[in-house]
């Protein structure tokens, strides 16, 4: 079976082809237009998707050395995401399906982040996923394919959102997550103890207070000329420690509670080197198998949509032409 996957939930226009032989192509057109605004502007995102979607799909087909005629089903992100962005991908996918009379598969973007781990690995069920991205921070108990129980999630900001907002306070470009990660490698993680919230709660998170505490901390150092220039790496390292320590503590709680022996990381923040390292240490301590997608499959991509669509198509989980996008689509 040959699946064309389309992703357009946020600011990445992406297309990929997944077949019985595995992933055949994975094309991403990132939208540079948002950089100057320090965040994604929804209206501009929809327009950019519209402009690049066909070119991106053509490129994915060419790179896979195939054509639309050989595609058996189209998998597309149904949500969660920005409504206008989702509409562009979904309507385009429906058009392709109608023109070729092939079925449509509606994919949950957060499920796809998890199943990105199957592109190059084969995690054993049941497992726990720490899904950490720009809009979500979730601990999910995955008992079998598409059999998910949400153990807990963030009450306010997502981990990626925390990295990005703190980066903005530090004067770093958007998205700041990867920049803070790089800076942190040169800094002292123990330079400052930023607060870790909700440690008395097993599986829920809160990151909005951290952002505020970084702001007050910098205000307190106002009298030291050049403080931030001198200590940017140290602040990045300390912030990274605060975020990743709390993520891994709650992941440890989830392993204990569910008694799984396999864990996976998913979403853009799973690209974070400190998180990857801490998760490796935890897995070793607990005798767990750990799966982390390679960097290209952590942040938004269509390979994860295509593989999830492939798994759904094999289970006959097709959608009809009434499929609607949902900005807050929950995992089943
Ligand atoms: P969602 O998946 O919740 O809808 P999204 O699709 O916007 O949100 P992703 O593309 O999965 O999110 O991830 C983007 C986020 O990952 C951004 O917040 C970005 O800063 C963060 N991120 C990417 N690389 C790193 C890194 N190395 N360290 C920390 N954060 C990172
Ligand atoms: Mg993005
Ligand atoms: Fe995402």
Automatic annotation (TrEMBL):
<comment type="function">
    <text>Required for the formation of a threonylcarbamoyl group on adenosine at position 37 (t(6)A37) in tRNAs that read codons beginning with adenine. Is involved in the transfer of the threonylcarbamoyl moiety of threonylcarbamoyl-AMP (TC-AMP) to the N6 group of A37, together with TsaE and TsaB. TsaD likely plays a direct catalytic role in this reaction.</text>
</comment>
<dbReference type="Pfam" id="PF00814">
    <property type="entry name" value="TsaD"/>
</dbReference>
<feature type="binding site">
    <location>
        <position position="272"/>
    </location>
    <ligand>
        <name>substrate</name>
    </ligand>
</feature>
<feature type="binding site">
    <location>
        <position position="109"/>
    </location>
    <ligand>
        <name>Fe cation</name>
    </ligand>
</feature>
<feature type="binding site">
    <location>
        <position position="177"/>
    </location>
    <ligand>
        <name>substrate</name>
    </ligand>
</feature>
<feature type="binding site">
    <location>
        <position position="181"/>
    </location>
    <ligand>
        <name>substrate</name>
    </ligand>
</feature>
<dbReference type="InterPro" id="IPR017861">
    <property type="entry name" value="KAE1/TsaD"/>
</dbReference>
<comment type="similarity">
    <text>Belongs to the KAE1 / TsaD family.</text>
</comment>
<feature type="binding site">
    <location>
        <begin position="131"/>
        <end position="135"/>
    </location>
    <ligand>
        <name>substrate</name>
    </ligand>
</feature>
<dbReference type="InterPro" id="IPR000905">
    <property type="entry name" value="Gcp-like_dom"/>
</dbReference>
<keyword id="KW-0408">Iron</keyword>
<keyword id="KW-0479">Metal-binding</keyword>
<keyword id="KW-0012">Acyltransferase</keyword>
<feature type="binding site">
    <location>
        <position position="113"/>
    </location>
    <ligand>
        <name>Fe cation</name>
    </ligand>
</feature>
<dbReference type="InterPro" id="IPR043129">
    <property type="entry name" value="ATPase_NBD"/>
</dbReference>
<feature type="binding site">
    <location>
        <position position="164"/>
    </location>
    <ligand>
        <name>substrate</name>
    </ligand>
</feature>
<keyword id="KW-0808">Transferase</keyword>
<feature type="domain" description="Gcp-like">
    <location>
        <begin position="23"/>
        <end position="306"/>
    </location>
</feature>
<keyword id="KW-0819">tRNA processing</keyword>
<dbReference type="GO" id="GO:0061711">
    <property type="term" value="F:tRNA N(6)-L-threonylcarbamoyladenine synthase activity"/>
</dbReference>
<dbReference type="InterPro" id="IPR022450">
    <property type="entry name" value="TsaD"/>
</dbReference>
<protein>
    <recommendedName>
        <fullName>tRNA N6-adenosine threonylcarbamoyltransferase</fullName>
        <ecNumber>2.3.1.234</ecNumber>
    </recommendedName>
</protein>
<feature type="binding site">
    <location>
        <position position="300"/>
    </location>
    <ligand>
        <name>Fe cation</name>
    </ligand>
</feature>
<keyword id="KW-0963">Cytoplasm</keyword>
């Amino acid at each position: 079976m040959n699946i064309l996957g389309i992703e357009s939930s946020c600011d990445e226009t992406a297309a990929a082809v997944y077949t019985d032989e595995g992933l055949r192509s994975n094309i991403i057109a990132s939208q540079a237009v948002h950089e100057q605004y320090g965040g994604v502007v929804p209206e501009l995102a929809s327009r950019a998707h519209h402009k690049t979607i066909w070119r991106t799909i053509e490129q994915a087909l060419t790179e896979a050395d195939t054509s639309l005629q050989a595609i058996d089903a189209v998998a597309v992100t149904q949500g969660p995401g920005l409504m206008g962005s989702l509409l562009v991908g979904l309507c385009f996918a429906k058009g392709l399906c109608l023109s070729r009379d092939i079925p449509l598969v509606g994919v949950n973007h957060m499920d796809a982040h998890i199943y990105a781990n199957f592109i190059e690995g084969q995690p054993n069920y049941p497992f726990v996923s720490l899904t950490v991205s720009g809009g979500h921070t979730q601990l999910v108990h995955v008992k079998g394919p598409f059999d998910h129980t949400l153990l807990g999630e963030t009450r306010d900001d997502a981990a990626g959102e925390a990295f990005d907002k703190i980066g903005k306070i530090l004067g770093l470009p958007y998205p700041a997550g990867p920049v803070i990660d790089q800076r942190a490698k040169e800094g002292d993680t123990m330079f400052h103890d930023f607060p870790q919230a909700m440690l008395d709660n097993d599986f829920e998170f809160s990151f909005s207070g951290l952002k505020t505490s970084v702001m007050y901390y910098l205000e307190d150092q106002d009298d030291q000329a050049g403080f931030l220039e001198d200590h940017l790496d140290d602040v990045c390292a300390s912030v990274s420690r605060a975020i990743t320590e709390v993520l891994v503590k709650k992941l440890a709680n989830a392993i204990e509670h569910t008694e799984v022996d396999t864990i996976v990381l998913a979403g853009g923040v799973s690209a974070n080197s400190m998180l990857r390292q801490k998760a490796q240490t935890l897995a070793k301590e607990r005798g767990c198998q750990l799966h982390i997608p390679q960097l290209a499959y952590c942040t938004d991509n269509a390979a994860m949509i295509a593989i999830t669509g492939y798994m759904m198509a094999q289970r006959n989980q097709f959608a009809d032409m009434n499929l609607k996008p949902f900005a807050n689509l929950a995992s089943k």
